[in-house]
Amino acid sequence: MLNNASRYSKMIKAEASRLGFMQCGIAKAEFLEDEAPKLEKWLKNKHHGQMAYMENHFDKRLDPRLLVDDSKSVISLTLNYFPEERQTDPAAPKISKYAYGADYHQVIKDKLFQLLNFIGEEIGEVAGRAFVDSAPVLDRAWAKRAGIGWIGKNSNLINKKNGSFFFLAELIVDLELEYDNPFQTDHCGTCTKCIDACPTEAILSPFVIDANKCISYLTIELREEIDPAFQNKMDNWMFGCDVCQDVCPWNRFSAPNVEPLFKPNEQLLQMKREDWLDITEDVFKTIFKNSAVKRTKFKGLTRNIDFIKKTL
């Protein structure tokens, strides 16, 4: 007969699958001892660039029990975003695949709240919080602890069956559950494709990313003008970058997502190089009405386009 922790875990994983999550793993809520010195060193070396928020809540990033009182479990989930279609004009400025459809923050938050409600209805009163890339949670570390995959040399979480084109999210709850075994094996081996392919050499060494050089950071997080030193090195990216994932051998297993809200905006996919160079604020608002690209605002996207257009 299953004990409660095991039974509850199976129920939660079944419901997560029904909601469309690709994987669900569970880890014990405790201090991330191994990650503490790595995070401290990364911040000390200023590899986080202007993302000052990364310096905040250092202790909370390492201990989920400071985020949810008396928390017992971290439920890690993945949601596939790999698209079936791509931008049609190979000469057009590029947008990272994760931003083709609706803003993932809201899509995933809705699913997480449904899962949290399910736990409350089926198991009982459970305190918990949902997290999607917008709070001090080291999601890749928790996903690894929950047995979902390993952290690749490009710092992305990789799964043998699905590659790395997926979002990570968490529920931190005060419920004792059955914990999955941490993922122990690094399946990158001697491969350095991601390091070799990075146009701006942002992967300083395996697992160490200098955000100051990362195209995703430069096109999304950076608020000032892009350093001219990156001219001719942006590989035509105007929002985000997929290079280190595109070259990863494990992503040959990526399959198109089945989430309707991630269906690419057809107008976005069909826009040609000239359309992007002449984009108006009205067109921007129409195309990116419910998109994560809104984060850059019209001013930010046109800054990026202006920066790369000399090489288009």
From TrEMBL:
TRNA binds at K299. It is an enzyme of class 1 (oxidoreductase). InterPro entries: 4Fe4S_Fe-S-bd (IPR017896), 4Fe4S_Fe_S_CS (IPR017900), QueG (IPR004453), QueG_DUF1730 (IPR013542). It holds the Pfam family QueG_DUF1730. Residues 179-207 form the 4Fe-4S ferredoxin-type domain. Binds 2 [4Fe-4S] clusters per monomer. Cob(II)alamin binds at R61, D133, N154, L157, L168, S216, C241, D242. One of its GO terms (molecular function) is cobalamin binding. It catalyses: epoxyqueuosine(34) in tRNA + AH2 = queuosine(34) in tRNA + A + H2O. Keywords: 4Fe-4S, Cobalamin, Cobalt, Cytoplasm, Iron, Iron-sulfur, Metal-binding, Oxidoreductase, Queuosine biosynthesis, tRNA processing. Pathway: tRNA modification; tRNA-queuosine biosynthesis. Gene3D superfamilies: 3.30.70.20. Its EC number is 1.17.99.6. Catalyzes the conversion of epoxyqueuosine (oQ) to queuosine (Q), which is a hypermodified base found in the wobble positions of tRNA(Asp), tRNA(Asn), tRNA(His) and tRNA(Tyr). This is Epoxyqueuosine reductase. The gene is queG.
